[in-house]
Every structure is written in C-alpha cells, then in structure tokens.
Amino acid sequence: MNWILIAQVTYVILLIFVCFRIIFDTEDTTKTVAYLLLSIFLPIGGMIIYFSFGVNYRKRKMYDKKLMDNERLQGDLEKELIKYSKEILQDGDAAVKSNKKLVNLVLKENLSPLTNNNDAKLLLNGENKFPEVIKAIESAKHHIHVEYYIFQDDTIGNTLVDLLIKKAKEGVKVRFIYDDFGSRSIREKCIPKLKEAGAETSPFYEIKFYALASRINYRNHRKIIIVDGKTSFVGGINVSDKYINSKNNELFWRDTHLMIHGPATWYLQFLFLCDWNFCAEDTVAINNDLFPKAETFTSTQDKMVQITASGPDSDTPTILFSIFQAICLAKKEILITTPYFIPGDSLLDALVIAAKSGVSVKLLVPGISDSKLANLASSSYYNTLLYAGVEIYKYQKGFVHAKTVVVDNEIAIVGTANMDIRSFDLNFEVNAIVYDEEINQQLKNAFYEDISHADKIDLETWKNRPTYIQFFEKMARLFSPLL
Fold this sequence. Notes:
The chain is an alpha/beta fold. 44% of the residues lie in helices and 20% in strands.
C-alpha cells in the first residue's frame, strides 16, 4: 500500500508540474485549456502528447541563428542592411512603394533586405523545375548548397545525387542538408555515396527515437538550392519522381517553384548557412564567394525580391505575419493556392474582412488530397469563408501542392509554407516575395488556369451536406495542430 501511495503522490506532483509548465509556456488560451484537459483526463498519455507536440520551442529557441559571435559586427551588418533596403525602397517603382508596410515588416522581423537587380523565373511543376536545376548545378564553379524536406531515392533523386557527386569530384564544394524524417529513404545509399565523393552532408535535427521524439514534430520543410551564391531555387517542389508529370505517374502533381539570379540569393544563403552551422559538425566562415558583392550581379529584369522565413528558431511567426499584412494591403484581389488550409483565427478573420470589404478573394485547395484528415479539418473553415463571399475551388485535375499568394497586381508570394498551423508555428519554412507586375501576372494566369480544372463550392449545397460529415470536419479541426 505504501508503494501505491508513493506512486499516487508522485503522479500528482508530476501532474502539477506539467500543468504549471503548460500554463507558463503556452500563450494561446485555447491550446492551454486543451493541453490541460488532455493531461488531467488522459493519465500519462496526455503528458506525453504535450511534450511531443505542445512545447513552445519558439519561446525556448531551438537554436541561435546568428552566423557571427561578434555583436558589434552583427550590429553594423544590421544597420547596413536596413540602409541598403531603404535606399532601394526609395528608388523603387510603384509595386514596391505601395507595399512598403510589408517590406518594412519583413525587414524588421527577419532582417531580410529588399533586393533589386534580380532575375526571377516561375517554374510550374517538376518537369519545368528540374531541367533548370540540373543546368544550374552543372554550371557551378565554387559551391552548391542543397537543403530539402523530401529528397527521394528514386530516378530524379539519383540523377541529382550523381550530378552532385560529379561536381564534388571536380572540386566544387557540395553541402547537403536533408530533413531526417522527410528524406529518410536516402540515408542508406545516397548519403554514403555523396560522402565518399567528398560532399558534406548532414541531417537536420536528427531523429534517434521516433516513438516519443518531439523533434519529429519540428520539421525542416525548406526546399533551397544555392549555386555559387548567385543562383537559387525556392518553392514547393520536393525532389521526387511524383512531382514530374510523366506518363508513368498515376496522379498529376501541380506545384510551383521560383528560380532567382541576383542579390535575393543572399538571404537564402544566410538561411542555409545558419541551418548548416546548427546541424553539421563543422561551421562555415563567411566570405565573398558565399556572398558575392552586389556589383557582380547582372540582370535583365531588375525584379524586386525579398525573402521571409520563420520556424521554431524565430521570435515571431514571420511568414504568418507577412501573409496577413499582404492580405491587409489588398485593394482588389487575393488569390491563394494551398494544399493544406488550416489558417487559425487571425488569418481567417483577415480573409473574411477583406471579402466583406469588397476585395475579390479566391481560394484554391485540393479536391484530391494526400491527407483525408487535413482535408476534413480544412473543410471546417469553409462555411465562415463562403458566408463572407470568398470563392473556394477544389482542384480536380490531380493534387495541387503549390503554396502561392497573389495580391492585386504587385505582390507574388511563392514558397514552402502551407496555409496551416504547422507551417506557421512548427516547421522551418521560407517564402519569396516578388514585388513585380510581370511575375504577379504570370502567377495570376497560372491560378486562373488551375481553377478551370476545379469545382467551385456552392454555398447552398455546402450548407446542406450531411450532419455526420460536418461533425467529422469539426473533430478533425480539433487535431489540426498535430496535422
């Protein structure tokens, strides 16, 4: 009986500690109540779920993203970047000047400079992305930096691995970061081959114990390639055969990527090196080969580009803030494409307010999804949007995996972040913002082409769907932070 009493007292003390930790560490009231109830009414299991999924790693900073230890040098760099951005903003065209609130937000939150003198090219789907990637890697003279959430051991994956091996043997410095969860298929064969050829590789936040590891919940969802510090790629397309729409693929895969040649590559390089210095055994020193001077870039397009990033390493959910600000700046039209739509209250309110204020808001989501639970959770938000006048389209040609936002004629956002809680709070993500009418129009054209293959949701029909389906949607919404 004494042992039972000791066990009970120990459990109560542990429960009090966990409850105190939840109250102190969780800023969102709804999440706080949910995790408290879970811990109290699901003995042990509720605590395990909280420590696996609920710990506020933004508050507890998973790692320090600074590249340098010299505080004075860091401060001088910040001043120079702010000065550089303000000069470009002052000399910029109407597309960037009318959106200076967004520029300033990203500059302040990310210290990500507004850059000009960029060439930018939209790459729709894997069949258009990978030839450009191969061409860029083949041209590399100094270094190739690769960072991916999903990198598969398949045809395109091995094509890129073989090319990276070839360049490494030629003396080009190859550094490769892969998410240990998303890219687990390359551990046994591809990674040893790269290392043997002289390439440096590192898993990001290595997972050693799957069952209880909270780190499985914090994924590096970024998809970045940097070649010689000048050319870069960012967007939604992972390295996998399923992203290439060949005759062998059963499902059409619709996605969007962006190729950049110009100073916007600087910040993508900065992100990569921060991630590398965190997860790899060695650190990389800054030099002009990694960050070429602005005067070394040549451009025929002079696009204005700014990179925004966030994750458990950032003080604020900057990507959420940037999308929110872009929506608030809209005067005529907002076009959103996302495979996972679980926006949270603030973003939902912003879209409702925009629609009720006379802005045309259109949302494209999958009709065919790779996650039934995520689709159910997304559907639970549609009533509110439809009543506000938002047009919602379900893509039917295949699976739409693109993550893009188009605002009026001036803002085009392409990146890795889905419109969901995981991307805003849990994953390491990166988006590119292009302040340009031409890229905006190209992305707009792609959106309207996509909705020609989509079914528009009718409000009356949607209201009358079976009650049991509405119940399952609301149940799925409860689990949205874990999806």
